[in-house]
Amino acid sequence: MYCPGVLGNSLIVWIVLCNPRMRNVTNYFIVNLAVADILVCVFCLPITLLSNLLSGKLHTYTCIRVVSEAAVKQIPGQ
Q1: C-alpha dihedral sign at 21, 25, 30, 35
Q2: pTM, whole model, 2 decimals?
Q3: Does the pLDDT at position 78 exceed 60?
């Protein structure tokens, strides 16, 4: 989620800043949210990943993955 988050939000910022037509109050608000999300991706995600790796909390993510895969298998046509 790190790379898509940073790249997608950077694309939003770039589009709004490069196109004068896109510069309005609503899009500035969206750019503000994108910048905040970039900061979360850059600073919080790596620290949280390291924290979970070092504390052994990855079993929670494994459990979530197993449950979600079981739910997908119950969908007809899968």
Answers
A1: positive
A2: 0.66
A3: no
Q: Structure tokens of 15? A: 């589009």
CA distances from 7 to 34, 38, 58 (A): 10, 9, 26
Residue with tokens 């997608």: 8
Q: Taking phi first (over 0 means left), then psi (-120 to 50 degrees means alpha), and beta for anything else, what does residue 77 get?
A: left
Measured CA to CA, the distance from residue 37 to residue 49 in angstroms comes to 16
Q: What is the pLDDT of residues 4-60, one digit of tens each?
A: 889 999 999 999 999 999 999 999 999 999 999 999 989 888 887 777 777 766 566
Strand spans (E) along the chain: none
Assign 15 to helix, strand or coil.
helix
Q: Is 19 helix (H, G, I), strand (E, B) or coil?
A: coil
